[in-house]
Specification:
single chain, 497 residues, two-stranded antiparallel sheet, mainly alpha, flat, 18 helices
Length: 497
Amino acid sequence: MSLGPVAVAIAVAFLLVGLAYLANSGRGARPGREIPPNLAPFMVDEDLENKRLNKTLTAALFSSAFLAIALPLYFLTESGRQADFVELFEEEAVHIGEDIYLEQAPDNPEGFGCIACHGAEGVGGGTDFVDPRTGATVTWAAPSLNDVLYRYTDEEVRYWLIWGRPGSPMPAWGVEAGGPLNDQQLDFVIEYLHSIQIPQEEALANVETRVNEALATLSGAEAAITTAIAEQEAELSALLSAPDRLTWADDLAGDLEVVLAGAEAGLDSDLDGLSDDVETQINRISELAFANVGTDATPATQSAADRLVLELDHKNGFSTVDVIGEGVADRDAAIALLEEIQAQATALRPLSLNNAPLVAAATDAVANLEMSLADARFAVDFDEVATAGFGGDVAAAERAYGLYAAYCARCHTAGYSAGPAGTLEPGSGALGPSLRDGRSIVQFPDAQDHYDFILNGSVNGQAYGVNGIGRGWMPGFGAVLSEADLRLIVDFERSLQ
């Protein structure tokens, strides 16, 4: 604790004690005097100038001296207190920004769920998204945020937070664009992003991992699309069967309600409140529910498969075992079966009521995925790339593509974040301009200018290349990529035709 506040506190205490002393010293009774005080002559100088006055003046002198020393000391320590306050404010801002970043919960009502897409502490992740190119549901890749400030300034990050990224799952968050976060909340989020930035050495070390992942994605593209086609065909089949499954669910739920209403009628061998005949009927309904209602028609309830299968035993009142291995009373299991069938019906109802447009959309998605596989627009001929830009060095061409895919394709290759099924030719253009047909060479006749642009990124309002005007959208990669890797990216982009 600094000396300034202590000195002021002591001075104030000293002053209060002195005032109290003065106030009390004149309150004593004066026996024998009948003249009202306001009419009596006051004390002469000889009476006033006594030891008490000297003590009072001495105390005042020391008090003044103390204040003369304490106030400068307080002033000299003010900058330290201000610095401490700034640090405290930043810590609180980071905490509030983290609350906004996390999911909303009873203990965190301020959460907006950024973590759902960008991962814990901004490591990156993905989210389900209907790809507008194919109509299929894909896992859209969300970028890492724990290194974003090596590429963008605070104001550039603020722009993306305010306006989002149209055509992607990233919504507009700022009130200026119709989002829920005001300027101060955006400041808090940016402070939190500052707190989670990884060391630059770690960002540089991640390059190899990202390059290898990008190359692995390319080599597995056909298999990934084939899997996507199979999943989409299963979804289409489930949609086609949804009306029939809904009919089964409604009928079986009604039958089970009737059976449970007369559950105690008849012989009850295990005394569990369900007669033997009722248990047999429940088992039959369970088999029919599993076979005809199923869970493939309602992907959100696939974990319910086990709850549709009951094998009640007339001699055991706890025939079913729950997920933790404890027995469940047969009556409770039957009621849970009824609730599950009703839940399946609830999930199937909108699929049935809107069946025609949903089936049409799923059919188109299958056709688009099959077209993506047949066209293979995502493919890269490394021999051709090596010849065009790397003097025949295939290894250099592969690394250059890996770097481009890991750091540039999100903006400059259409559909890249949607995965192989939605990916078009490298450099086909998306949020950023197309780089094909030699456009990079047109924009940057001098390769060094091209390199400098990737190194530093764009600055809002500043010119670049030939007739280029920056908006601050293009990040600079000089803090996370080596010069050699940056030049590989330049050569790759200038080779695109």
